Amino acid sequence: MSDRDVGRRGGVRHLAAASAFVAALAGLAGCSSIGALGTADPLISPAGSAASNVLAGAANPSLDPEHERIVASYGGVYDDPAAAQAVARAVGRIVAASDDPSQSYRITILNSPAINAFALPSGNLYVTRGLIGLAGDTSEVAAVIAHEMAHVTARHAVARARRAEVASEVTKMANVMQDQDAQRLALASTQLSLARFSQVQELEADAVGVRTLARAGFDPFAASRFLTSMARFAEYRASRGSSSKSPDFLSSHPSTPERISFAVRSAREIGAPGIGEQEREQYLKGLDGMVYGDDPSEGFVRGRSFLHKGLGIQFTVPTGYTLENTTKAVLATDTQGMAMRFDGVSLTPDTSLAAYLGSGWINGLVADSISTTAIGDLPAATATARADGWTFRIGVVRRGRTVFRFIFAAQEEGALLDTALADTMSGFRRLTAEESARLRPLRIHVVRVKPGDTVERVAEQMSGIDRKADLFRVLNGLGAGEAPEPGRLVKIVTDG
Question: In sequence order, what DSSP letters do the residues of 196-243 get, joined into one string?
Answer without folding.
Answer: HHHHHHHHHHHHHHHHHHHHTTB-TTHHHHHHHHHHHHHHHH--SS--
